[in-house]
Amino acid sequence: MGRDGRMIEPELLSMEALESAMARIASRPLLLHSPTIRFVLAPGDRALVAPGEAVLPGTPLAERTPDAAFVDVGRITFVPVGEPAPTAPEGAPDAPSEAATAAVEGAYETKVAPKHSLSFPKRAAIWHGGSRPSPDVPPLSGPERRCPPSPGKWWVGGVDLRGRSHRRRSAPRRIAGTLLFEVGGRWHAAAGERHEIVEAPAAGIICEARNGIHITMTLSGIAIPAAVGAGGAARGYLDVPRLADGELWASALDVGRAGAIVVAGSRISAQGISRARAMSIRGLIAASVGQGELRDLAASETRQRASLHQPAPFGLLSFDGHQRRPMASPVLALLAALAGRDVAIVTDPPMLVFDVEDLALPEIAPDWVRVRSGPHAGREGRYLSPAGMHQFRVGINLEAAFVRLGDDLAPTVVSMSDLERFV
Amino acid sequence: MKRQPRAFFALDFGSATTSAALIGRVGIRWRLVAHAAAPASTPLDLQLFDLLGKVHAADADLLASFNPDSGLDGRPDITALAAILPRLEARSTPPRRIAVLAGSRRQRIQLESAASRAGWLVVSGSADEDDPVTLSRLVLSPNVGAVLLGADHSPSGDEKRHLPMLAALVAAADRCRSELTVVLAGGAGVHEGAFPEAYGRAVVAVPTASAATSAAAEAGGTTAAVARSHNVLIAPESAAGEPAGAALQQVLEGLRAESNDSRLGFARSISSLASVLDRSIEGIEIGLQGGLRCRAERLTAGSKTIVSWHAAPASASFAPPDPDDATIEGLVAWSPVALDRYRVTDRLRDLRIFPWGDVEGDGALLRAAAAKAATERAIVATPDISARPMADLIVAGGGTWASMPAPLAALALADLVRRPGVSRLAVDHARLLGPLGAIEDEAERCDMLSDLADDLLVLLGTVIMPAGMRQGRSAGKLTVRPGEPKTAAEAGRTIAVPPIELDMRPGSLEAIDLAPGQTATVAMEFRDNVRLTNRGRNFAVDVDGGLVGLLVDLREVPLRVSDRSEARRAALEAWQRVVWAETDG
């Protein structure tokens, strides 16, 4: 500062000095190549893919059991393929018919002696007399069918296994899930009637797939990392309704944007989220989203999962966090370049994925910085020079820098710890 | 022939920031030459070059003397020097999550307490409250790195009947997830036969009653080495040790922490410092991934044995990963300015994402409130330390305290560590205690701390905190007789400093200027018997000055503040104004 209180124009740095000074500023990657993502599974969920398998967008990855309940499966006797079934144990004279009627679909080598069993002839009549359940559950893979029962193995059971009366149903229902553990020779499982398919949001290679635990995959595309992700993985075309850093009005989210992932500007409102879901929009992207809005979204997700129909996947991304601030201009430029293309929202870790090879990357000046937090949060400008130790408000001394923010004529002193640069 | 290096770097790799200090041999002692902290994303080499560059600018000869390869007249090559100087490193162990399973709610709470004190993020369930699918979900979650299944040594009926099922459930999870480490505590150990596929077992003996003593901190590294090569551990029951749970805490701590964990290093250094300074010391360290509260003191006056306690609850993070309503309420309660709860939640979560930002202005006040709320959680988690008398010295450590303005740090310590007594307040400003705790040899560590004792702590001042005064009238008179300033005494000059008299009004907080290095004698005459160092009316104590000076804290012990938010904020603001005039900006 000069004697008259006006800011003195700092000297411009040489290229070498600028590089050295910029290296002291926290870096923020603009793009990630071939990131690894994860889908967390729960007991009752199974992976439909195997490690090393290449998947395309839309390939079924996993089958979730949203209302998995504890099921006492009973004894399961493993019979290797090609060997005759063992004789029925004493006290279970009709066990061979049970092996047929318990109908562990695909698990032809196992026999199940359920705990809550009705009389076996009745069960047989129910199974064969009623219409066969629709094949909404993909069959087990060959290797899985051939292995003995073990924790995590897919298991399919019949109506009686849940202890419910068959009279209330017009057709038998099948429950399926994963085996949990064995106590005293009896197996227990997490299983349910309803199942949901999780599809791959982008192309990639499966790294790890374990029933009830997780699936990890390395994407073949490129991603823009985000700070916060909510909802689920979703895919759609990118709709960039406005490029200014304002906030998108909820009324702009109409049915014409169904199937799109919409860039909503600086902030996502709770009203915008509700409306987007109602209009079958696949996702929203903004610079920030408040914790209150995330809480509303989680509650809405829970309600939707309780319904009979599988909800359409909906994802939400925030690039900067929770406090309101404008979207970074390099990110906005990238999104503008991607407008109309297919992109995917991934939430673990949060990122926006795309497969575009020939994307024109925005040019970022070597001295371009953004204020990440503090009173100037969200503003961008050019780094001029270091300002040394500077006393800020409430008497705090911090290492600072001169930055020309936006179109300001005078440089602004910003704490180095509040700055970020794009790499 | 190369000479031995006469300097080394002490590096504390925190989750949010990295602190680098240059410690050099000056004369016959090790001294702190320079230090700096930078966001964890800053390249370390760059940080070290900057540090050495500043030393070179200030005293090039001193820097040259640290170079083992340079001649007396050689100009030091900073790049080479940064590469060749030895490095003493401590590192914040990344947070790890443990699933705690028990047969009964009572047992689950005990196990949870031990795991939480050991620094684990805890998810828990008990067979009498949760169904097996919920329990399986806990242990199969890929975010969980270990499972603790525990029972009493002789489990009673309520948990005994659930144990076979729980053991089978955990064994099944272990089959699915070979990376999982299983700890069978107490009576659950009899079910180790359920883990036939485990690739190793280790039995950890029950530590003796001295588990809470100095051996506890030392054993951490040893246990860690054992744990790394096994995935099933047989551990003591949740009530073993003194205090209850200390034995299990020790095992779990070794399982979680890396050998050079900075938080445990801090506790080890406090223990050594208590031996070097011959004082009882309480340490409070708050960071992004958790906090630590420890205490060390001589067993008895004149004894050479140091006893120590410590706990490192992950909940004492200043920006917890998933702050619940209670966490937000705790932060708002310590804020002197009105805060909207939703906005605070957003700011706290942003602090988690970008922990080194928002340090100035309102951000400083928010950070101070977050640090106080975190310290309060650490204090609640350590009732055994709170039960001890006021320590002679209270040391605040970690990036949060090091970056906090000194008056705010002193006030926070006085607000939170409330027991009758007289205590010096200090901050580990260069974050040296963590790296020095990584020195394995106790004697070597004590020698180093002895040399660095004057450098490693910045004294904030002294707090006098009497308890048991009658409200509504003057409690008595206090007279401060400052000693001669140290510089004047060294110069052989005598400066007459007039005594300061103060009428002691219960409920008030007074700050008296007493510069760093200055000492004083405080005489107090109370109207009634009060508790200070002991119970009485007349006291005379020696105090040390510091960045804040002498705090005469006549507020209630424990601190009582109005439940009404406006009155509470007014009180907090008034107390803050006593020590920190810059609040108005």
Question: Which characteristics define this entry?
Answer:
heterodimer, A: 423 residues, alpha+beta, 6-stranded mixed β-sheet, 7 helices, 28 strands, 35% strand, elongated, disordered N terminus, B: 585 residues, alpha/beta, 8-stranded mixed β-sheet, 22 strands
Verbal overview:
The complex is a heterodimer of chains A (423) and B (585). Chain A is an alpha+beta fold. Chain A contains 7 helices and 28 strands. Chain A has helices at 15-22, 95-101, 120-129, 142-146, 270-278, 291-306, 329-338; strands at 26-28, 32-33, 36-40, 46-47, 54-55, 60-64, 69-78, 110-113, 154-157, 175-183, 186-192, 196-199, 204-210, 214-219, 222-225, 228-231, 234-239, 260-263, 267-268, 283-289, 315-321, 342-347, 350-354, 368-371, 380-392, 396-405, 412-415, 419-422. In chain A, the strands form 5 sheets. In chain A, strands 2, 15, 16, 17, 18, 19, 20, 21, 22 and 23 form a 10-stranded mixed sheet that branches. In chain A, strands 1-28-24-25-26-27 form a 6-stranded mixed sheet, covered by helices on one side. In chain A, strands 8-7-11-10-9 form a 5-stranded antiparallel sheet. In chain A, 43% of the residues are buried. Residues 2-6 and 85-137 of chain A have low confidence and may be disordered. Chain B contains 20 helices and 22 strands. In chain B, the strands form 4 sheets. An 8-stranded mixed sheet of chain B has the order 13-12-11-14-15-16-22-19, sandwiched between helices. Chain B has a 6-stranded parallel sheet with strand order 6-5-7-8-10-9, with helices on both faces. A 4-stranded mixed sheet of chain B has the order 3-2-1-4, sandwiched between helices. By secondary structure, chain B is α/β, with parallel strands linked by helices. In chain B, helix 1 (44-58) crosses helix 2 (60-66). In chain B, helix 8 (214-228) links the parallel strand 9 and strand 10. Chain B starts with 6 loop residues before the first strand and ends in a 6-residue tail after the last helix. Classes of the chains: A alpha+beta (423), B alpha/beta (585). Chains A and B meet through strand 10 of A and helix 5, helix 7, helix 12 and helix 13 of B.
